[in-house]
Amino acid sequence: MEKAPGSLVLRATPFIGLLLLCLLYTVDFEFNVTPSDQWNKLRTNWSGNSVEGGTQIKDEDPLYLLLKRLVEGESQTQLEATGFACDSKIHTEVCVSSRPVRIDTLTMKVYAPFSQGMPQANRTIHPYARKDDKSLMNTSVTPVQILPAGNITLSPPCQYTHNVTAVIFSSGGFAGNIFHEFNEVIIPLFLTTRHFQSRLQFILTDFRPDFVAKYKRILSHLSSYEVINPASNGSMHCFPGAVVGLHFHDLLAISTTNVPEGYSMLDFKQFLRESYNIKIQDLSQTEKPVLVLVSRQGSRMFLNEDQMVTMMRELGFSVVVAKPDMMGNLDEVAEMLNPCSVLVGAHGAGLTNQVFLPEGAVLVQVVGLGLEWVSDNYFGGPGIGMGLNYVEYKIEPEESSLISIYGRDHPVIFDPSSMYSQGYEVGRALYLIEQKFNIDLVRFRKTLVKALGLLGRSAPSV
Predict the structure, then answer these.
(1) 402-413 burial string, b = 16+ CB within 10 Å, else e?
(2) How confident is the model at residue 150, as a pLDDT?
(3) How high does pLDDT run on average in the chain?
(4) Using an 8 Å Cβ cutoff, are 423 and 334 in contact?
(5) Residue-wise pLDDT tens digits, 107-150
(6) How wide is the angle at C-alpha 401 spanned by C-alphas 349 and 314, nearest 5°?
């Protein structure tokens, strides 16, 4: 229960007293620790004591056992001894307190119960999983300062008291791009908080209303409470414990052996099915193969997209062309991709939506000139980790629009590495921004026939 300062003395009948109390609660408490009706509606598929990562988390488990999963080695020992510890990696930093903390959302200062002599004292964290990108951290992610509380009773008084753990993270950084949103926020958020079984309160720095609206189903399945926006509530919030920062394992990937242990991308995909109430888990539940083509406008677009669609239909696919304006609503995207057998697209953020594909589906990625490494590491390898089949279609120089601009004998065509050696922005401008594709339909048909074979189907005779 969340409390405001002071006490209310009711000198009326029980009915009137109850009515007044409800009215005061509605007016004074912007951030209820009791789930709102709207939030509850989004959580209709949530069941309380599910098994997470092979471990049953029960109501009576103390807070420090939940937080202990978020640190390792000496940090676990320190958490048990002092109630505070941090886990630091290349891409991210996570600090946890199993003892009461006070969080000033106006200044984003966390007053935690540790002494000045501890190595974590006066720590500043940018709660976004790109710690190694110093420029991004300094310009797009609000820092959170962790300070020793000393005698916590002498700290500023609580204006709001919560009975669940706080989790502080940022929707700054590269938010607005679905790849970065899943890679650096959503999957790390799942990793860090799923085992709390929604008994926690999110505090979202660099609050973006569009981000919260876009991922409301995911957020509401990880927390029972509406997200706190620090910018609209500069108050002192008190919690029994806190987590600052999110864990990160790899690009669109989860390692079962990294902290916190036990999760996989298959667990994450099952979580998405629960969150979006989608039914198909594998392709045995589908009939005619459905192919979704991610359509791009501008960079990396298919110049002969209509001809590609005609060829796809001739192979027996039911084809859905996913235009950019169809990809913003994740409820609709999840519904569209859940029965999909084959997802086809050029390297780009749209392929992040492979997280909604059923197991056994095929990801066909069109790899442009100069995009081999990012294609494999951002989407190809991760797709396999999601239980998908992966087929790469690497274009020939004649299929790239760059050849008509620079000619076959230019280093842009035959030596992309020499362009990247001049700086990432040079390579990005050429291969990610300027490049378009005119697909060789004969070659690409063979790729789709291979995809059909992976589905246990054969192409119709010509």
Answers:
(1) bbeebeeeeebb
(2) 65
(3) 87
(4) no
(5) 999 998 876 566 656 789 999 999 999 999 999 999 999 998 76
(6) 70
Kindly state the tokens that stand for 4. Answer: 């405001």
Region of residue 436 (left: phi > 0; alpha: psi -120 to 50; beta: else): beta
Contact 367/382 with Cβ under 8 angstroms?
Answer: no
Q: Helix, strand or coil for residue 239?
A: strand
Tell me the C-alpha to C-alpha distance, in Å, between residue 213 and each of 2, 158, 245, 335, 422. 24, 29, 21, 17, 40
- 376: which residues sit within 8 A by CB, 6+ positions away? 392
Rounded distance between C-alpha atoms, residue 314 and residue 95, angstroms: 55
Q: In whole angstroms, give the CA distance from residue 5 to residue 316.
A: 67
- Please compute, for residue 242, the number of CA atoms within 13 A of its CA located in the half-sphere on the CB side: 25
Average pLDDT rounded to a whole number, residues 337-343:
96
Q: Quick one: pLDDT at residue 49? A: 37
Return all residues near 446 (Cβ < 8 A) that are at least 6 apart: none
300 pLDDT higher than 90: yes
Alpha carbons within 13 A on the beta-carbon side of 78 = 19
Does the pLDDT of residue 23 top 60, yes or no?
A: no
